[in-house]
UniProtKB/TrEMBL annotation:
SUPFAM superfamilies: Actin-like ATPase domain
EC assignment: 2.7.1.17
Keywords: ATP-binding, Carbohydrate metabolism, Kinase, Nucleotide-binding, Transferase, Xylose metabolism
Positions of the record's site feature: Important for activity: 13
Protein name: Xylulose kinase
Top-rank EC class of the record's enzyme: transferase
Positions of substrate binding: 74-75
InterPro entries the record matches: ATPase_NBD, Carb_kinase_FGGY, Carb_kinase_FGGY_CS, FGGY_C, FGGY_Carb_Kinase, FGGY_N, Xylulokinase
Catalysed transformations (reactions): D-xylulose + ATP = D-xylulose 5-phosphate + ADP + H(+)
Highest taxon above the source species: Bacteria
Residues of the active site: 226
Length: 471
């Protein structure tokens, strides 16, 4: 790319809810144009919907682009037959029907430690391996037709370049049948999960290894999972922990060694650069706020005002926001719980505050977990739609107990995919330096009294979680 100031790259974020496309300057990361198209709001979907959204989002957008990368929602199960036709609608990460399958598989391999040692993670309902078990048990005739299993980003990349499907180490590490530490598939686990069947799996490419070219010559990078792409966009370094508040909530940082958490709280994923990405995930994040706003019949701005008008701790009102089941802790069949109700604290202000604190406490538990597995926590990078909430920004430093910064609002997953495309195009050892998280809003560091109040809030939530576990 030497001497050419007009090289453009594109990044695609095929998420649960939509496809976002960012076209960027390959050297600086500056966004020059963008596109978007919505996905159906469901937990299973025909992959053709992703292709339709991609086509809509990129219409007129890719002229002059030299390379493109695709990042996708992790864990989803795309099944193809021997004619490369989709066997059944793809099951997405947030489809929890395979909760029992996850528990059964954990027992069959010998418990959490055996899984953590084998693939870095203990399976929960989100993982592809559990969805394959569910399919084998509930749809055996369809399972018999499956010749290939892909992840969402694999399927889109395959549609772009054709040939044999490929993936990357980061996204493969979320399947439950790939070892990021050994960089190899565990086909024995695949067969155990899928009733003895061993469908073909995508070839795992190295960081920035080309996946191929589109018919018009556009270079395609290997792509990756959404969390891996976000880490790449933010140039996450030692001491940085990302807390992402989107449909799901995620907590992750980058390290050099693979964790093996037998409890399953921390997933031992790989990142998109050859390192590891210990991650804790909750199913319930931004939608906790939208659901609470709907319950109170207010908009999000009013929810912020109400939450900020309440005292820290919401006068003892505690919300466990397991509105769609939960992944961390692993309670796929759980429902939300509102505890500590008294006549004096049953106000809209306290409910709004409890929603904000409940959402953040779920992520604070994840922060504690990744700290225990090799991640240094010096600051939190707060991203995602809910990071723009005034009440979330006000409460986060005390609940997390560390400095919090909010990067400029951006489509970090799509930008990470674009940065990977630029890296693949350049053919260099390291990705290009783009604007990272230093251009950010720095929130006030928690004072001693704030930190103490945050610990009291977290402790009340720990007690509430323990009560729910015991039910």
């Amino acid at each position: 790319m030497t001497g050419n100031r007009d090289v453009l790259v594109a990044g695609v974020d095929s998420s649960t809810q939509s496809t976002k496309v960012m076209v960027c300057d390959a050297r600086t990361g500056v966004v020059v144009r963008s596109g978007r198209a919505e996905h159906p709001d469901t937990t299973e979907v025909d992959p053709a919907e992703w292709w339709s959204a991609f086509t809509t989002a990129t219409e007129g957008l890719l002229e002059g682009v030299s390379a493109i990368g695709v990042a996708g929602q992790q864990h989803g199960m795309v099944t193809l037959d021997d004619a490369d036709e989709v066997v059944r609608p793809a099951l997405l990460w947030n489809d929890t029907r395979s909760g029992k399958a996850a528990a059964d598989l954990t027992d069959e391999l010998g418990g959490g430690q055996a899984w953590a040692d084998a693939v870095g993670s203990v399976p929960v309902a989100s993982f592809t391996v559990t969805k394959l078990r569910w399919m084998a048990e509930h749809e055996p005739e369809l399972a018999d037709r499956v010749a290939r299993v892909l992840l969402p980003h694999d399927w889109l990349t395959w549609r772009l370049v054709g040939g044999d499907p490929v993936t990357d180490r980061g996204d493969a590490s979320g399947t439950g049948y790939f070892s990021p530490a050994k960089n190899e598939y565990r086909t024995d686990i695949l067969a155990k999960a899928f009733g003895g069947r061993t469908p073909e799996l995508p070839t795992v490419l190295g960081p920035a290894q080309p996946a191929g070219h589109m018919s018009d010559g556009l270079l395609v990078s290997p792509g990756t999972g959404d969390n891996m792409a976000a880490a790449l966009a933010l140039e996450v370094g030692e001491g940085d922990v990302v807390v992402s508040l989107g449909t799901s909530g995620t907590v992750f940082g980058v390290c050099e060694t693979s964790p093996a958490d037998a409890t399953g709280t921390v997933a031992g994923f790989a990142d998109a650069t050859g390192r590891f990405l210990p991650l804790a995930c909750t199913l319930n994040a931004a939608r906790v706020l939208t659901a609470t706003a709907a319950m109170l019949d207010v908009d999000l701005a009013e929810l912020d005002r109400l939450a900020l008008a309440a005292a820290p701790g919401a006068e003892g009102l505690t919300l466990l926001p397991y509105l769609d089941g939960e992944r961390t802790p692993n309670l796929p069949e759980a429902a939300g719980s509102l505890l500590g109700l008294r006549r004096a604290n049953m106000t809209p202000e306290n409910l709004a505050r409890a929603a904000v604190e409940g959402m953040l406490c779920g992520l604070a538990a994840g922060l504690e977990a990744v700290r225990e597995h090799g991640i240094t926590v010096r600051r939190v990078l707060l991203i995602g739609g809910a990071a723009q909430s005034a009440s979330v920004r006000a409460v986060a430093p005390s609940v997390f107990g560390v400095p919090v910064v909010v990067p400029e609002p951006a489509e970090h997953v799509a930008l990470g995919a674009a940065r990977q495309a630029a890296w693949t195009l350049a053919g260099t050892q390291d990705p290009p330096r783009w604007q990272g998280a230093d251009q950010a809003l720095r929130l006030d560091e928690p004072s001693a009294s704030d930190a103490a109040e945050g610990e009291r809030i977290r402790e009340r939530h720990r007690a509430a979680r323990g009560a729910v576990h015991d039910l």
